[in-house]
């Protein structure tokens, strides 16, 4: 059986204000909500879901839902509303009944969500078609991801959990030296196995990921504070500012000061 393509009624990036929240409501559309940054508590038909950066949830038409921000926490999300006209589409059969679909931070699904938002805000039939195509790709990718997750052995799931644990550990301790031995102790996996599985999951090695985290944090500090380059280098885990400078230029193709100058004008 074939169905009509989805009709996208809203797709946007939303920076929530401090006291924002969604009171209990029902929508006539399906909704995807993807956490870009921060965290919030989502409730769907009485089931509470704590969502964090990278989490993707969905709910079906007319399901009662609400959202509560946490005190002091930011919340930035991608929100997509869509429907299938008068045709009943078996989305629950495709995606399952679990409203938390998974965490896709840094993965291809995150990229497609962002692309969909970008095309939605561009005029013309070409962008409209690309939006619909991206949404159908997302539904297919999510279905495949769900099936792969369900067919994984218990051992594979444990390995994936350990790899995510390593990633989270690196992200939390980026501002100090991290050793392979430390990651081995944390996960119980060998050095080579960690590298293989981490690259398979995230496309980079653990220490390439560490460099990415440090670069992003350095850019934030450079733009949001008055810290010097040497102070920023120390804050992101480099005792030597020259080593930091070489790493940044090697990865970004420009120095940190040049990067800031290209974004900030008088």
Automatic annotation (TrEMBL):
Limits of the HTH araC/xylS-type domain: 164-262
Keyword Membrane: no
InterPro entries: AraC-bd (IPR003313), AraC_XylS_family_regulators (IPR050204), Homeodomain-like_sf (IPR009057), HTH-like (IPR037923), HTH_AraC (IPR018060), HTH_AraC-typ_CS (IPR018062), RmlC-like_jellyroll (IPR014710)
Alphabetic keyword roster: Activator, Cytoplasm, DNA-binding, Transcription, Transcription regulation
This protein's name: AraC family transcriptional regulator
Species of origin: Paenibacillus sepulcri
């Amino acid at each position: 059986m074939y169905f009509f393509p989805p009709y996208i009624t809203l797709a946007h990036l939303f920076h929530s204000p401090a006291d924002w929240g969604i009171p209990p409501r029902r929508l006539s559309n399906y909704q995807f909500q993807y956490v870009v940054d921060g965290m919030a508590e989502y409730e769907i038909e009485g089931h509470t879901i704590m969502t964090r950066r990278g989490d993707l949830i969905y709910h079906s038409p007319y399901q009662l839902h609400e959202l509560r921000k946490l005190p002091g926490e930011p919340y930035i999300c991608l929100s997509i509303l869509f429907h299938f006209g008068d045709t009943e589409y078996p989305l629950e059969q495709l995606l399952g009944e679990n409203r938390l679909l998974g965490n896709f931070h840094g993965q291809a699904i995150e990229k497609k969500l962002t692309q969909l938002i970008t095309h939605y805000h561009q005029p013309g039939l070409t962008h409209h078609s690309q939006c619909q195509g991206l949404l159908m790709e997302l539904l297919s990718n999510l279905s495949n991801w769900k099936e792969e997750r369900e067919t994984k052995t218990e051992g594979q799931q444990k390995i994936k959990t350990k790899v995510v644990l390593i990633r989270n550990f690196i992200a939390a301790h980026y501002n100090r030296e991290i050793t392979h031995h430390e990651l081995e102790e944390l996960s119980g996996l060998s050095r080579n196995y960690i590298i293989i599985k981490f690259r398979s999951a995230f496309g980079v090695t653990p220490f390439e990921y560490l460099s990415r985290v440090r670069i992003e944090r350095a850019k934030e500090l450079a733009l949001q504070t008055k810290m010097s380059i040497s102070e920023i280098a120390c804050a992101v885990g480099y005792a030597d500012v020259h080593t930091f400078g070489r790493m940044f230029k090697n990865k970004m193709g420009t120095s940190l000061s040049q990067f800031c100058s290209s974004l900030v004008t008088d």
